[in-house]
TrEMBL record:
SUPFAM superfamilies: P-loop containing nucleoside triphosphate hydrolases. This is ABC transport system ATP-binding protein. Pfam families: ABC_tran. Keywords: ATP-binding, Hydrolase, Nucleotide-binding, Transport. CDD domains: ABC_MJ0796_LolCDE_FtsE. GO terms for molecular function: ATP binding; ATP hydrolysis activity; transmembrane transporter activity.
Amino acid sequence: MEQLITLEQVSKSFSANAKPVLEDIDLTINDGESIAILGPSGSGKSTLLSIIGLLDEPTAGDYLLRSENITALTRKQKSLVRNAHIGWIFQNFNLIASMTVLENVVQPMRFNKAIKSSEYIDRAKEALNDVGLLDKHATTPDKLSGGQQQRVAIARALVNKPALILADEPTGNLDQATGDEVMALLQALCDKGSTLIVVTHDESVAQRCKRRIRILDGRIDYDGK
Ligand code: ADP
Ligand code: MG
């Protein structure tokens, strides 16, 4: 399997004298993996995911993308890498309330130089079709159920066909049945080629993933099947 992202001796502190939130993390993520990140509240799961997803920077250590060390890139350069390669899904969906469903799904393509603006609508509709919500394209998010909103967020995350999908407690605001449906959908779409990392408290979600990583007190406590 080809290496997608490698973290080497990554640590993160939010203030100089406080205990680090992450300490000496060594982690390799390969193409095609599905990974669940588990651990108690406050253990550092979201911080780790934010570093993997280039939303936050480590205070020490190295970040390699396809074996290339990109630690020293500027924030701006990293955001370009993020927009091109990474799709994010959040617990609170983070859809833009003033935009239609279709416009929400179009947004990530505006940051992707590889996609022409003439393709935006067709690609957004294709992504909505993949999550079973093409008929809702003209509506606004407030008219949708939580499960439907999360499916729109999945379409938005997948529309750039990113190498990596990151989801931070994506089923945390959904009931069990809806959460199971959302995860099944996410997994099916990732089976088409994206790598998936999901932070979750939900054992049924974790069981869908082939690898599990447990974080305890800012360190990797378990990494295996
Ligand atoms: P988890 O997702 O496992 O619940 P987090 O990664 O959100 O944990 O947080 C880990 C620790 O880092 C917590 O103690 C939290 O308070 C702290 N933390 C997270 N983000 C920040 C921040 N922006 N500033 C200061 N402390 C933070
Ligand atoms: Mg968290």
